[in-house]
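Teaching soon. Got one?

===
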Amino acid sequence: MAGFLGSHVPTFDIAAHYSRTSTHDLLVTTTHLGSVLASHFSKSDSYVARVGAAGAALASSFLSKESDTASSVTSLQPDHTVVLMRGHGFTAIGSDVREAVFRAVYTQQNAGVQTTAMMLRNVQMGAVERGKGREEREKGVHDEGVKYLGDGELGDCREMGQKTAGRPWGLWVREVEVHGLYVNEA
């Protein structure tokens, strides 16, 4: 479900971008910090990075998907959909609220799965190395490291996620509607 993450997720280190008078609270509270965070969604040599997020948004608002410029809209899309934020978490983006929420939920869920898998792997390999895993050693079990999704898997998972992103949305909306914590009096 996390093919949208791609093969690389950039990390934004806010500490490198504070001004002398900034409060060092890891929060993006100024236009400058927001702009630097936004720039991490695109490779430094891409069009979006050169014109900035605001320029790309403005340009894309003038381009209609139904027109001959649909390929131009695609070129304005960011290179990354998630940026890790050192010491703080992550930021996920999407073409609309549903897609952004989908990416945020599945980024967090997949991070938990990967963390658990890496811990289990470390426990298993530690046991093998300490001699407690004789069977594994005799079978030739060795540490292969983390095996990430290949390019084909990433593309297919990304496509599947785009097709099914609306499915959990109804459930999430209903959960918010029935939970007493969320009240909308509008």
